[in-house]
Amino acid sequence: MTFLGLQDVRDIIIIAAGSLAILILLALFVTTVVLSIAVRTLLSAIQTLLRDEATPLLHSGRETLGRVKGTATFVSEAAAGPIIRVYGVVAGTRRFLGVLSGVAGRRKRG
User: Fold this and answer.
1) What is the pTM assigned to this prediction?
2) Could you report the per-residue pLDDT of 78-110, keeping only the tens digit for each?
């Protein structure tokens, strides 16, 4: 019967550790390659999505905002402007009549 010496056990452990390290490095390399391919595919899909979906959506949104701005300007000029002018004339007339009649100066002081 031959017994393994301490030096033989040491050599077997070194060979096993080296083989395990090589297997782990090989697995890391394969994982890195697979992840890089997946990332490239994902980036390509995102670029396609942005080009085909998001860009037309943003363009449509800009057009809609332009129309809303034009509508707000039109309403401001056509409706709000004349109403404000009429209210200003009415307020000025009331103040003028109040000053002429002396009503404006008769406020109660507390």
Assistant:
1) 0.47
2) 887 788 888 899 999 998 888 888 765 555 554
Retrieve residue 4's tokens: 């393994």
The model's pLDDT over 9-61, given as tens digits with 9 standing for 90+, comes to: 999 999 999 999 999 999 999 999 999 999 999 999 999 988 888 888 888 99
Can you tell me the distance from the alpha carbon of 103 to that of 97, in angstroms, rounded to the nearest whole number?
Answer: 9
| Residue 96 identity | F
108 neighbors 102 (Cβ within 8 angstroms): no
The Cα–Cα gap between 3 and 21 comes to 28
H-assigned helices in the chain: 6-49, 55-75, 81-101
Distance CA 85, CA 72 (A): 18
Separation CA 13–CA 85 (nearest Å) = 97
Residue carrying the six token digits 């031959």: 2
Nearest to 36 by CA among 48, 46, 24, 28: 28
Asked whether 98 and 104 are in contact (CB, 8 A), the reply is yes
Residue type, 40: R
